[in-house]
C-alpha cells in the first residue's frame, strides 16, 4: 500500500471512532493532523461526515415507522418515566444533527474562503470578520449541551493546505490583520501562437505554460539535471539505448551553447532513431507476441521507411487504416489483419484508442456509465470495417517446399447496415459515422478510406491531440491525461492550453514527428532533475496526484531498451547502426522478449509483460546471458577488456561507471570501490586464484553491481 492509502485507512478508523463517540484526545489530535495535512483527507472527512449524518437521519425515520400504534390513553394514565415521542426522535436525531451541523460549519468556512479567493479584499474591521466564526461556535456550544458525549471536530481554515496563503511574503505583508484564506492564483488566459510559429516561440510557450501550472499549484521546480543525467535520458527516450562511452564523452566535453539542440537533431537523423520508433509502433500496433499469423517484418519495414522519410503522421495513419492487399506486399495491412477477428471489435477499439486517444471498447455492450459515449457510437465506428474481409491466398510452391499461403486484406463492394443488440435484447441499426459526419452505406463506397480521410483531414484535430499526448507521455512518463489514450471532456487534461497549442503547431508543421520531439526535449521541463525539491514533494503522480512536471518522473526501461542497452555495456561495436543489416539482431531481441510476454487472448487482443520489477526480470539481470556477455573479458572490443588495459584503478572504475551509468563516480564512491577491489583481490589470491584472474573477477564484480543497480535500469 502507498503512504496515501495507509493514511486514508487510518483516517477511516479514526472517523469510525469519532462517530461511535469513543475517540480519545490523542486520537482526536491525530485525526486533526491528518485532515489538515492533505486535501484528499479533508474530502474524505467531509464525505464520511455527510454519510454518517444521513445514516443517523434514516435510522431515526425507520425507528419511528417501526413503533406500533397503541390505544389512546389519557394523559393521567401515562407513567412519569415513559419517554415521549419527541424524546425518542431526539434520541436518534441528535447525533445526526450534530454531524450535519459540523458539516454545515465546515462548508460555511469553505464557501467563505472560496468567495474571498474569487474577490480578495482588504479586511478593514477585524472584529466584524470574527462574527461568523462566533456564530458557528455558538451553534457548536448549543449542540454540545444537548449531547456532551459527541465531540465536535473543528477545522481552522488557515491551517489547511488548500486554504493557506500562497506566498510567505503575502503572509508577512498582512501585518496584524487576520489571515484571509486564498486559493492558488488563477493564471490569466494566454494568446495562441501564430500558425507555424518559430521553434523558439513554441519552446517558450511550453515553458510558460508549465510554469503557470507550478504557480497555480504553489510549487517550485527541481533544479536542472546534470549533463550526465540529461544525455543518458535523451538517448534512451529518442533512440532506445544508453550512449556509448565515446558518445557520452563527446557531449560532456562539448562547450557549445546549443549542444542540447545539436544532439537531438543528430539523434533524430540517426538510423537508431528509425529502428527505435519503428519498434515502438510495431509493439503498439500488433503487440510483442510472435505467434500471430501475420508478417511482422513487413509491418516494421513499412514503419522503418515511414520514419526514415519522416513522413507526416497523418499519412502513416491513413495508410494503416485504409490499407489493402496481402501481408507481404503491403506491410501496412498487417495492423488490421491482426485485429479483424470477432466482428472487427478489436480493430474498432484499437484504432480509436491508438490514433484518436479515445477508449470506446466498453460501449460495445452498453452506454458508458461516466460520460455520454453511447453503444450506438461504438457500432457506428465498427460499421466502417464491415466491408473488409480477411482472405488467405495460396502462394506458388517453391522447389522442395510445401505450398504456402498468406493473408490479404480485401475491401468488398457491398453496402448495407450494421445491426447490434442492446442490453434490452433489441436489434438496432448503426450507420458509418465519425465526428458527426455520416458516410453513405451504399455499395461501392470504401468505408475504411472514408474513415481514414475523416480522421486525418478537416477541422478535427483529435489525431494531432492524441499523438501529442502520447509523445508527451513517452518522454515524461505521464501524459496530459491519465490514461493517455482516454481523452475527452470526462477526463480533462492537466494543461489544456499547452495540449491544444502543441496540437495546432503539430498540424501546421505537417505532422512532423521529429519536430514535435525536438520541441518537447528542448523544453525546460524535460531538462529538470528527477530529484524531489523541498517545494515540490506534492508533485508525485505515483500517489495519484495530478502531474505538474516540476521534476522529471522516473521511468523504468522497457524490455527493448534494456536489451539494447546491455548490448552497449557489453561491446559498443554491437550497436545497431543500419536497419538493413539489423533485422537478424532484432529477431533475436524479439525472441528474448517472449519470456516476458503474456497474451490475454481476449476480445481486444490484449497482452501484458512480466518485466516490470518481477522475479523473472531480477533473475535475468543477476545471471542472464546478456549480463554475462557484458562481463566477458575475453571478447574482443568488450568494455571490460578495454578497462583492464588501463593501469590506474581510478581510470578503470571511472570507465566502468561511465559505460553503465553515463557518469563518473564521486570521490567517495571511487575511494570505496577501490577499497572493495583491493579486498576482493586479496581474498581471491588467498584462495589460490591467480593474481591476474583475481583482478579480473574483482572488476567484474564492480561492473555487475553497476548493471544491477536501480540507477542503471531506471530512466531518471
Characterise this structure.
There is one protein chain. The protein is built from 30 helices and eleven strands. Among the domains are: 3-64 and 86-173, no CATH class; 312-460, no CATH class; 559-715, no CATH class. Strands 1-3-2 form a three-stranded antiparallel sheet. A two-stranded antiparallel sheet has the order 4-5. Helix content is 53%, strand content 5%. The two termini are 23 Å apart. Mean pLDDT is 78; it is low at 52-97 and 107-184. The protein is mainly α.
What radius of gyration results from the CA coordinates? 33 Å
Share in helix: 40-55%
- Mean pLDDT comes to 78
Largest sheet: 3 strands, antiparallel
Sequence of strands across the biggest β-sheet: 1-3-2
Strand content: 5-15%
Tally of extended strands?
11
What form results from the Cα inertia axes?
globular
- Number of H- or I-type helical stretches: 30
In short:
With 716 residues, this protein is mainly alpha-helical. The chain is built from 30 helices and 11 strands.
Considering the chains and any ligands shown, give keywords for the structure.
11 strands, single chain, 30 helices, 5% strand, 716 residues, globular, two-stranded antiparallel sheet, transmembrane helix
Amino acid at each position: 500500500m502507498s503512504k496515501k492509502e495507509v493514511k486514508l485507512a487510518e483516517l477511516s478508523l479514526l472517523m469510525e471512532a469519532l462517530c461511535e463517540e469513543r475517540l480519545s484526545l490523542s486520537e482526536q489530535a491525530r485525526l486533526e493532523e491528518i485532515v489538515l495535512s492533505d486535501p484528499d483527507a479533508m474530502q474524505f472527512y467531509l464525505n464520511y461526515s455527510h454519510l454518517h449524518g444521513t445514516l443517523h437521519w434514516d435510522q431515526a425515520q425507520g425507528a419511528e415507522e417501526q413503533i406500533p400504534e397503541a390505544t389512546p390513553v389519557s394523559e393521567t394514565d401515562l407513567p412519569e418515566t415513559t419517554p415521549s415521542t419527541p424524546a425518542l426522535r431526539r434520541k436518534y436525531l441528535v447525533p445526526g444533527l450534530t454531524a450535519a451541523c459540523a458539516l454545515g460549519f465546515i462548508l460555511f468556512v469553505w464557501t467563505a474562503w472560496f468567495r474571498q479567493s474569487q474577490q480578495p479584499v482588504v479586511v478593514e474591521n477585524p472584529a466584524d470578520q470574527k462574527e461568523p466564526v462566533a456564530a458557528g461556535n455558538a451553534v457548536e456550544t448549543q449542540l454540545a449541551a444537548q449531547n456532551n458525549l459527541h465531540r465536535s471536530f473543528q477545522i481552522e481554515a488557515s491551517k489547511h493546505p488548500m486554504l493557506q496563503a500562497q506566498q510567505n511574503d503575502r503572509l508577512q505583508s498582512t501585518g496584524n490583520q487576520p489571515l484571509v484564506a486564498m486559493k492558488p492564483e488563477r493564471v490569466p488566459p494566454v494568446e495562441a501562437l501564430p500558425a507555424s510559429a518559430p521553434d523558439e516561440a513554441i519552446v517558450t510557450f511550453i515553458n510558460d505554460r508549465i510554469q503557470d501550472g507550478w504557480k497555480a499549484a504553489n510549487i517550485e521546480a527541481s533544479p536542472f539535471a546534470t549533463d550526465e543525467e540529461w544525455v543518458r535520458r535523451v538517448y534512451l527516450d529518442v533512440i532506445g539505448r544508453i550512449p556509448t562511452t565515446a558518445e557520452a564523452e563527446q557531449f560532456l566535453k562539448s562547450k557549445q551553447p546549443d549542444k542540447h539542440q545539436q544532439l537531438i537533431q543528430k539523434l533524430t537523423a540517426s538510423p537508431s532513431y528509425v529502428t527505435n520508433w519503428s519498434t515502438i509502433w510495431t509493439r503498439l500496433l500488433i503487440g510483442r507476441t510472435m505467434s500471430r499469423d501475420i508478417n511482422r517484418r513487413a509491418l516494421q519495414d513499412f514503419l522503418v521507411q515511414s520514419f526514415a522519410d519522416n513522413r507526416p503522421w497523418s499519412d502513416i495513419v491513413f495508410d494503416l487504416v485504409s490499407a489493402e492487399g496481402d501481408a507481404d506486399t503491403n506491410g501496412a495491412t498487417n495492423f488490421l489483419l491482426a485485429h479483424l477477428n470477432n466482428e472487427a471489435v478489436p480493430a474498432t477499439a484499437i484504432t480509436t484508442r491508438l490514433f484518436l486517444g479515445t477508449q470506446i471498447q466498453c460501449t460495445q455492450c452498453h452506454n458508458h456509465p461516466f460520460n455520454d459515449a453511447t453503444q450506438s457510437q461504438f457500432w457506428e465506428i465498427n460499421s466502417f470495417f464491415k466491408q473488409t474481409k480477411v482472405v488467405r491466398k495460396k502462394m506458388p510452391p517453391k522447389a522442395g517446399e510445401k505450398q504456402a499461403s498468406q493473408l490479404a486484406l480485401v475491401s468488398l463492394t457491398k453496402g448495407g447496415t450494421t445491426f447490434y443488440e442492446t442490453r434490452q435484447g433489441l436489434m438496432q441499426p448503426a450507420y458509418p459515422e465519425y465526428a458527426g459526419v455520416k458516410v453513405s452505406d451504399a455499395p461501392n463506397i470504401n468505408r475504411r478510406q472514408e474513415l481514414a480521410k475523416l480522421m486525418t483531414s478537416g477541422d478535427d484535430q483529435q489525431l494531432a491531440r492524441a499523438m501529442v499526448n502520447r509523445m508527451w507521455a513517452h518522454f515524461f512518463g505521464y501524459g496530459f491525461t491519465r490514461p493517455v489514450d482516454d481523452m475527452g471532456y470526462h477526463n480533462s487534461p492537466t494543461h489544456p492550453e499547452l495540449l491544444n497549442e502543441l496540437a495546432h503547431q503539430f498540424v501546421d508543421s505537417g505532422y512532423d514527428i521529429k519536430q514535435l520531439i525536438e520541441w518537447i526535449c528542448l523544453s525546460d521541463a524535460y531538462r529538470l532533475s528527477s530529484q524531489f525539491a523541498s517545494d515540490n514533494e506534492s508533485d508525485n503522480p505515483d500517489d495519484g496526484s495530478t502531474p505538474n512536471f516540476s521534476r522529471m518522473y522516473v521511468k523504468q526501461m522497457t524490455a527493448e531498451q534494456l536489451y539494447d542497452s546491455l548490448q552497449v555495456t557489453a561491446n559498443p561495436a554491437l550497436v545497431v547502426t543500419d536497419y538493413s543489416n539489423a533485422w537478424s539482431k532484432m529477431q533475436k531481441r524479439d525472441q528474448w522478449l517472449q519470456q516476458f510476454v503474456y497474451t490475454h487472448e481476449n476480445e481486444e487482443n490484449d497482452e501484458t509483460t512480466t518485466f516490470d520489477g518481477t522475479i523473472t526480470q531480477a533473475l535475468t539481470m543477476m545471471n542472464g546471458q546478456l549480463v554475462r556477455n557484458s562481463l566477458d573479458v575475453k571478447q574482443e572490443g568488450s568494455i571490460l577488456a578495454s578497462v583492464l588495459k588501463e593501469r590506474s584503478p581510478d581510470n578503470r572504475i571511472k570507465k566502468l561507471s561511465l559505460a553503465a551509468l553515463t557518469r563518473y563516480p564521486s570521490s567517495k564512491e571511487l575511494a570505496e570501490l577501490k577499497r572493495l577491489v583491493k579486498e576482493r583481490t586479496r581474498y581471491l589470491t588467498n584462495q589460490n586464484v591467480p593474481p591476474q584472474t583475481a583482478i579480473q573477477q574483482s572488476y567484474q564484480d564492480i561492473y555487475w553491481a553497476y548493471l544491477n543497480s536501480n540507477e542503471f535500469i531506471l530512466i531518471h
